[in-house]
Amino acid sequence: MDSRSLSSTVPSLSMNERIVWISDNGPEYGYVRWLGKLPDIGDDWMVGVEFDNPVGTGTGFYRDQQLFESQMNHASLVPIIGLMKAADFEDSSPTSSGSQHNILTYPAPKTLRSLMGKSRGIQGHNNSCYLDATLFAMFSSATVFESLLYRPSTAKDIPEYSQVQNILREEIVRPLRKDFFVSANQVMQLRTLLEKLSSVEGLTDEEKDPEEFLTLLLNQILRAEPYLKLSSGLESFFYQLIVDKDENIVLPTVQDLFDQSCLGNSIRLREIPPCLLLQMPRFGRQYKMYSRIVPSMQLDITDILESSPRACGQINKNCDNLASFECKDCFGERGNRFNTRLSNITYCKSCFQSKHFSRSHSTGIEDHDNTKSIIKHGCTNREAQQRFLASSSSSKNKTIPRVYMDLFAILCIETSHYVCFVKCDNDPDAPWCFFDSMADRKGEQNGYNIPEVSLFEDLPFWLSDKGIAYLLNNRDDKLLPEMSRRLICDAYMCFYQSSDLQLYR
Question: What residue stretches are annotated with the USP domain (predicted)?
Answer without folding.
Answer: 120-499
